[in-house]
Structure formats: structure tokens, C-alpha cells
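Researcher: Good morning. I'm working through a list of sequences from a screen, and I'd like to move beyond sequence-only analysis. For each chain I'm collecting a predicted structure so we can compare shapes side by side. This is the next one on the list. No need for commentary yet; just the structure.
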Amino acid sequence: MVSVNDLTMEFSAHPIFSDVSFVVNKNDKIGLAGKNGAGKSTMLKIIAGLQQPTSGTVSKPQEVTIGYLPQQMKLADDTSIINEAKKAFAHLDEHKAKLDELNNELATRTDYESESYARLIENIEYLNDRLAMEGADNMEAEVEKTLTGLGFNREDFDRPTSEFSGGWRMRVELAKILLQKPDLLLLDEPTNHLDIESIQWLEQFLANKAKAVMLVSHDRAFLDNVTRRTIEISCGKVYDYKVSYTPYTELRRERVEQQMRAYENQQKQIADIKAFIERFRYQATKAIQVQSRIKQLEKIVPIEVDEVDTSRLRLKFPPAPRSGDFPLILEDVGKAYGSHQVFDHAEFRIRRGEKVAFVGKNGEGKSTLVKCIMGEIDHTGMLKLGHNVKIGYFAQNQAQMLDENLTVFETIDNVAVGDIRLKIRDILGAFMFGGEASDKKVKVLSGGEKTRLAMIKLLLQPVNFLILDEPTNHLDLKTKDILKDAIRDFDGTVIVVSHDRDFLDGLVEKVYEFGGGKVKENLGGIYDFLRSKNLENLRELELSKSPSAEQGKSKSDATRNNTQDSATDNVASPAKLSYAEQKAREKVLKKAEKKVKDSEAEISRLEALQKEIEDKISAGDTSAETLEAYAKAQKDLENGMSIWELATMELEELRGQ
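Model: Good morning. C-alpha cells for this chain:
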């Protein structure tokens, strides 16, 4: 569908990648991998036609459409949320206007046998088919479904875009691109401004409804759930793997090990040749052999080894004084801005050593409660910090608090104590400040680089209570692993505000959900919470909710009342239908029920297969073939669950009609 041919890109005579070629096929789901600066975003821009390569071409059929979401973009603020989203269908308005023009012409024509009349009919049929295919009659519903899926409330649709933050306006741009249904979606860090529920919705959309997708993301779970192919850019070359991200990392490790063995063998060969040359350089009887060795040395093409894997580097927080048994106690805590109650009646205790997550949709109060804990804003109720609590706080704007006149090395050297000072260069390298980058002034760093530097600074301070607000937004996957290991080994207390499921998985043992003005405690890890949340969402999906009617109710009251309303609707609606309509409805329902039943059977089969492979691994079979089969079984099961969820949603929607 899209062919990349011998692509080379250079910046200031420095090659980013050279002679790169690959093909994006119809319905491919591709993750672009590589360290920061490898050229992933540049590759997306070139394929989108927004940047010209130094040499090489990108070829595609004329009818193939491409949608591109950059990390940052200029956003318009001249209309409402819903009207901005509807701009995605501007081309349909053009089609409709052209169709009206052709129909008017058709009404005046009488030359029924002419070639031009036949072409007119063909053009009308083409436009009708195009409008039908692109869902012109269902435009309003598609816009609403996409905006709500990305986290907008229906009461926000008519609000001006200027009232929303940059992150929310980026969601509108993402909605517009998804609504255009391009043949190839190019997405650069699409999850940076999304909460967990919106990310899950986007995953299902990309996996089940989008056509071809190529994306850059630092969210491992998102990559695993969406992609089926990984293209890595490394050392100026491209490596193409027909697997999602997690299996790719294992294959990549094997490739680097092979490269390292080949590199070491080559270095030994070079050393032997040089030793021979030095030994016999001045012996006339060996002149021919020496010249032969010199030519042999000149012909050797150096083997490049991909960047060294620093994920094994372990950071450890310095020892801190012991805090009291309960570092944080909340009783009946609430926060309101004017008439808007962000949350109320929040009550919980966090024990020393617990690691918990704050999750929920944006705007539900996660960062607000963190600010209450930090004493930055007032609140109602009792919020008490325990004895001898020393807080290390990473805010989303933490980077702005750095001294811009210091260098990167000086910034860290000023806070490092003890033996850790001997490892500053290694730590900076792990966070992509290796070599000359450590001597840069803070003021010349990008926003992402400043964020990483602020994170390193926090890691080295002696604290016993960490509060991290979206700590992973600008960290690549390897750096996130280093940070996660450090937090996991930290013997103090941790609150993490994050939408990154992979980062939270295995890190937190309790989840606090913010939503509907409440803070709800959920025992267990992030995936335990998500599983329970999915079931709850499925129950709620069958309800015909009215936003205005639901205000002021608890979630359980709203669910119970709406369930009763839905049941009443289900009983009453068939009586309003004719016999033929009832039969048609029953047929559609049976088909939807069969789809759910079939997907449940498939899930059972996949679970049994996964259990079978797990038993093999437990018995000691850790061959590459078995591990690859296990990764595939996990992926297939996740896809099966998504298909089942969509089928169930469709069935409940039909039952609620």
C-alpha cells in the first residue's frame, strides 16, 4: 500500500538513517521502535509527506489516504468541540454539493444514449457509494461516539475549544483523524494526553476498526494490544519483526547478542592482523605478506553493535529516616471550586511502605488531591501527614523548577551523596544524558529532557514518601523500566498518578479511583482494577443515560435506576413494532447473541491453550518456540476479550433499543 524505498535522512551531515526500505501493507498494525533520536518521528513525518528525505522516495497509490497526529500541533480555537470534530467530514459536504449539482444536471439531460450521459450516471453512482461507504448519514452518531470514547462528556460538546487545555484539544484533533478513517494512520505518542479508559477505547478502535496503523509510543501495554509488527530504527538501519512489542524485545536481545559475538570476533581478527603488521613491518622477507595484511585490514567493514542495553542498570534510593505507621490519613476530605465539587467525603489511610495508584478520567481530582496533600491548596475535612514524613514530589511542571544556569552534571552532582556520586555518569547515560550531553546547560534542554533530569534529581534525594504525578510521559521504555525497578525496591511509601498500565503493573498493590465526585478504594493491582472496571462498564453500557438526570446521584443509584428504566424499555418497545419488524428484530438479536456465544467459546479455548503453555513453562520448557507461543496466546486472548466486549456492547445496545 505504502512503499518506503532507499530512504536516507541527514541533519547537518549527520545521518539519522540510511538506505532504509520497507512496505506498509493494508491493515498492518506497526509499532516504530528505537531509542530517542533514532528518527521515529522523522520517519512518520516523511511518510506523511510533511518532510523531505535527503534521498529516496515514499510511494503510494493516489487514492490511498493518510492521517497524521504529531506530538505537538497548532490548534484552532474558533468553534465548539463538536463543530471542530465535524470538520473531519468537510470533504463529505463537498461530495454532497457535487452530487446535488450532478443530480440537477441529470434532471435537464435528454441525451440518454450519449457517452457523456453515461459518465454522468457513473459519477453520481460513485459519489452515492462514497457517501454511503463513509457513513454520511451516520455522521452525528460517529462524532458523538468518538468524542465520548476519548473522554468528553456530552454536556461539553457545545463548549468552545478555547475553554479546554492543550491536552483536551489534542484529543479533538485525534478524534478528527479517526473520524476521517484514513487508509493509514500515523500516530506519534497518541496516549500522552489520554486517561486509562480513553486509552482502552483507542486500543479497541485501532485494533478492530482502523485500517493500517503505524505508531510511536512509550506505552508498552498499548503497543502490545494494538500492534502485530514492530519496525526498529537502530544505528541508521531498519529491523522488521512480525511480532508485537514484547516478543520483539526478546528477539532484539538475541540479535544484539549475535552482533556482539560477531563484533568481538572481528575485533580479535583486526588485532591479530595489526599485530602481524607491527611484528614484520620492517622485515624484507615478509613485505608481501605485510602488504597483503594491510589491504585485508582496509577491506574490513566494521560491525556496528546496537546501542548498549542499560535496562540492567539498577538505581537505588538513598536510605531515609523511618516514617510513622500511617504516612497519610484522610477523613471526610473534599475540594470544591465555587459550585463545582471536584470530590467529597474522601476517606482512606495509606500504610508505611504501601505503593498505590491514583487513576481516573482527567479532571476528576487526582492532581487536585495531590496538591491538597502537598499543602498547595486548601480543602475541607482532615488530612494528616504521619510522623517524620519526608515527601519527594514530582509534579507535571517539575522541570520548570530546575536551575537553568547549571549543567546537567552539576544539577545531579549537587544532590548526589555517598557512593552514588561515583555512578553519576552511568545514571545520566541511562537517562539519555551520556557523553557531551551531560555538559549541556539546563536552559538549552527540551521540555522532555528537563523532565528526565528532574526525575533523576528526585531519585537521589533521601525521602520516605514519593508522590509522582504522571512521571513517565517523557521517558522511553528502557528508562521507564529503570525507574520502575527503583520504585519497586524503594522501602518507603509511594503514590503514583498515572495512565500507564504497564508501568503500574506489578508496582502498586492498591488503586484509588477518582470519578463522579468520589474517591473509591480498590484492593489489588492495576489489572485487577481494570478487569472489575470493564465488567462494571459493560453493565452500564446497556443503560440509556441522561447526563442531567444523573447529576447528584451516586454511581450505584444511577446504575440501579437506569437498569430499571432499561428493563422497562425492553418490555415496552417490542409492542410498538409490527409483526414483521418484531421478526426482523429477533433475527438481528439472535445473530448478536450467537456472536457473543461464539466469542465466549473462543475465549475458553484460548484460556485452555494459555494454561497448557504455562504448564510447559512451569515444567522447565523455556525454549524460544514455547515463549513465542505463549506471547501469541496472550495476544490472541487479549484480542478475543476485546472482540467479546464489542460483541456484548452491540448486543446490549440492541436490547436497549
